[in-house]
Sequence to fold (1129 residues):
Amino acid sequence: MKPRVAVIQFPGVNCEYETQRALNAAGLDAEVFRWNLDVGRLSSFDAFLLPGGFSYQDRVRAGAIAAKDSVVQEVALQADRGKPVLGICNGAQVLVEAGMVPGLSPGRVEMALGPNRTDGRSGYLCEWVFLKAVEPGRAAFTCAMREGQVVPLPIAHAEGRFVTRSPGTLEALEKERLPRLLYCSQSGEVATAYPSNPNGSVLSAAAVSNRKGNVMAMMPHPERAAWLSQVPDRITGAWGQARLEARGDRTRMSQPGPGRVVFESLLQYLK
Amino acid sequence: MDVEVETLSIIGRADDLVAEELRGHGLRLTVAEARHLARLIGRNPTKVEATIFDIMWSEHCSYKSSRHLLKEHLPTEARNVVLGPGEDAGIIKLCEHEGESFCLVVAHESHNHPSQVMPFEGAATGIGGIVRDVYCMGADVCAVMDALRFGDPHGPHKNKVREVASGVVSGIWQYGNALGVANMGGDVCFDACYDENCLVNVIAMGVVKEREIVRSRVPAAAARERYELILFGKPTDASGFGGAAFASDVLDSDELSESKAAVQVPDPFLKRILAEANKKMLELVHSRGLEIGFKDLGAGGIACATSEIAAAGGFGALIDLSKVPVETPKAGGELPPEVVVCSETQERFVLAVPSSVTGEILHIYNEEYELPHIYHGARAVAIGSVTTDGVYRIVTGAGREAASGGGFVLGGAASAGRGRVVSEGLGQGGSRDAQATAAQRLLCDVKADVITSGITIRRESRVAECQECEPRFAPPKDLGEFLLELLGSPNGASRWPIFSFYDCEVGGRTVIRPGDADAGVFAPLPGSPVGVAVSVDGAPAYGKISQYWAGAHAVAESMRNVACVGATPRALSDCLNFGSPEDPDVFHGFEETLRGVGDAARRICQVDRTDPSSAEPVPIVTGNVSFYNQTATGKAVAASPIVACYGVMEDYSKAVTMGLKRPGSLLFLIGRRYDELGGSLYYERLLGCVGRNVPLVRFGVERSAIRLVLGAIDRGLLEACHDVSSGGVAVTLSEMCMAGRDSCGAGVDLTGVAGIPNGAGSDGDSGAARSAGVAWTGGLRYDRKLFSESPGFVVEVASQNVNDLSKLAAETGVKLFRLGAVLNEPVLRARDNGKTVLEATVGDIRKVWSRGLEHALA
Fold:
């Protein structure tokens, strides 16, 4: 039996179907779970995915309303029992707003995802960036990656800048080496400035996990990079080159892209 | 309360009194049109009826000036057309996949006036409206795209222009990104002729199984079975009331506040949920094999949508206004009935369904997707039923106090002598329940097809001679420096500062992002190798010289762009943006443009690999005409045909981007250089003039070139491909360098690329089309070779493929010009007759090009 993943559909979410396809392609059994279905059914799933979009119209703040939703409360309970939960983009905003990431003092909101702000460009940005894995082996959604591995992924958000007011939180992230994805250059140097760090995120964080490694808030969209055909051929490095070389080869073009590893990690973690 | 039904007094009154009456009611109908209406229905119209006709007979809805000409000039039929113009969207066959025939659904229209008055809301509702047109064909929307025309961001109206431009871009991304539909880019141009009239043309694309196409008409089954009309979405409010009439007149700054009320209010969040619920509804409908009608609410709101859906099926309808969920005005009071029936409140649809499933369908919207909880006042409600007598009636529930006698009272209390009792039965099969209600107040009682059949006006047309002439000038001293100036200018710079706000990858279908190639490419069906490529084009300056060639170019360029990635042009849509049709010069330009669009679509024609002799036109399957893009003082936009081309490729893995790939590979030019700089970016930046020698589209040459490029990409012979258009070969090469690997550059030699003006063998090159060409002197000056906008392509070819490409070129009868090679040095260098004529580093080019637009918009 394939592990079952619930892709939570809040009103206003808009990446649920491609996320479902990417999960299924990695060998999982994903189902879109509408916000008003019976919450009791959630416990029958092995993992949860909060996809991108604009849940509840981003009213109050991005992710703020969904974070209070009974579905998320149930997902948090399941996470406490160790089940993996990934929030992508708006889903990441929900997990941070719900205090599940970084979750140092469980239930407390310790970080926020602020508006993109850099010297080069502020506001919404849809572009490809490079990411480097930190302690990937300890997290459910990166465990198939190597330490320091660099992958290109696309971002598409207006509020993706991880921020916190508490120096303790930053210290803990660094000191405890919580699993993360960091914005970096193509060669893997961690980036603090635009364009490699596209939003001014603190500690260059693009994705942050909790201590246990089972919950992760990820701003980039791995589901938009789940197949090689989704990678632009202008991307420098091995992935862009692979896409170039796959031109005219249907089979190669439908091979996994750089984002597939996130979903493969989940499968590996659940096995 | 006994509501008086307001009726206009037209019959038997003098013209000036009628005019005054119409104005008093805020109607734009002319006196002649009002009299025509009274004759048609045989009495004075109620205010609701007059309001409906005011909208339906507006230029925006009736195409009264243009309809006959569209029919005359535009090819709309081809074997791959499933549904041509006439409904909300056009449909062509796409492919067979998993034993099913799939179709591509496309819609294209303008949202110009609203975007000028309220840029954010106008542009957002433009996207909102165009996706509804695709959804209501039963399709899943995959992508949107827009063509934007703004004024001069450095000119006398720069503040307003920049405000409009940034508002429009925000409206597009904030709506489209939230809705979750990928934006494939489109194009953006700046020209002073749009200073006070921006153009916002929007395009949406979707896919549907051929057997699950839903039409915007009540199905024939309604003759045997009771059908109900379900309205769903946002509660009706006063927003957008008068929108169609507003779009059918010039913008007058004195009426600004009134105009703002005519702009609708967007809500992508609600739209996303409606789209999800629609999928569920369609699943139910298809699983039961039911026939339904489905239409979006646009211009004219409830009245137009319900009368059109009924009339299209040959039916009538009975609408009970008291059933319509209404958002009561904040100021208190009630919305007048003509506002409820005709306001253009966004995010609404209407369905015609068998009454046996009404309950289940309402359940999907109201319970499963919780519309009333998601959005205050939103819900799905049955507001009426289909009737078989062909009459379209609107009643108010307020009249339920009811006269005896079982009839309807039209125009107020019968005893007042102004109304009339309708006692003939309504219920020949369609409206038994309606009949059961004693007497109700009738607000509208007109044959549905009378409402929808429209009117025609023959406009005066007058040939306006182009006053522009060709300049005499010396080339700039340092062409490299000048190239940087040109590439940093609003029309030369990278579109990335705008495109990067658009979510171009949501949905996960995107194969080539906007800006990486001449067309955006997406794979609409997961698991299928079929790709769809789209491009939208139209050069503003060409329309100032020759409206015919402006039309032909818009078609040719969009086809060329789609071919550049390797997709075969399969359909076109057009949006024709003009000034007032009441101006004979403007109207003549409109006719000329139509001829150009039609000729290009017919003569470049579809490429059929299995049958090279086939000459089917590329069909124009949808579009619109937008007149009155001019100011109250009579300043009209240049003739602005904007054409989108939809290309299909059997295997998107073969798609090619524009960036240079490999140092050492060779560069070829397809398409001779002529002295054709009229309307060019070069003249604009160097001389600030338009010139006269507008590029021609040599239809036969264009057709062969497209065939060659498609054949070459299909065989994997091209590494990169980019068309030659705005800015000429110089800009084409610059863009190929910048889109390429950091280390790549280009070295070219232009000796020998010039053609003889009006030369032999150049099909379609009619000498009569130009009268002021510069005399042929046996060659073309190097700057003209570099910046001439004669159509063409530049292709990158690996050296081992050169022989195959040459062979293919010979077979298709296309002359290939060897330009040079891709350099392992980031520099662009051009030589002509033994001299270096242009040199610039790719780094310098990139610096000005990538941020040029930021300076224009900031």
About this structure: DSSP finds 28 helices and 28 strands in chain B. The first helix of chain B runs from residue 15 to 24. The first strand of chain B starts at residue 81 and ends at 83.
